[in-house]
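Folding Query — how this chain folds
Tokens — whole-number codes for backbone shape
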Amino acid sequence: MSGDETIGAMLEGEDTSLLIVDDDKPFLTRLARAMETRGFLVETAESVEEAVAKARANPPAYAVVDMRLADGNGLDVVAAIREKRDDARTIILTGYGNIATAVTAVKLGAVDYLSKPADADDVFAALTRTAGERAAPPENPMSADRVRWEHIQRVYEMCDRNVSETARRLNMHRRTLQRILAKRAPR
């Protein structure tokens, strides 16, 4: 049995509708094509507004949603999908990963949270993982810079994304905090 036949057998008889939401058009196109070859019926959206409309009109069984979109937050899409279909398997993709938003995503119903760049195999594994199955732990531990960044992000989320309050709690100058928040997460 080939790899594609195995994938098809895993999804056979299931609703394989998949909504992919990302504002990075080349990435969206590549991922959509890769998921179609794995047996999914793919629909795409490039904005929160478009994704919420599609989710309400035809709630997908699976969804891959980017956290930060040009017109808002991908968590709004996760919530819209959950309203219509509570058995949907949704994962969040983000280039701005942090623990606080991962926890929020899971509370809203996402089953996994992947940092970009994630390849199609990672996405497929996250979508099809059984409830009790755990993801493999990362091979490399977080760097000290990454741990610091995660802590700042957690406090920022606790302060409802209020920069001034976050800076006060961290005993940090507001402009310094703004510069840190504007950068991508360290590896």
Remarks:
- The first strand starts at residue 17 and ends at 21.
- The chain has two domains: 17-128, 144-182.
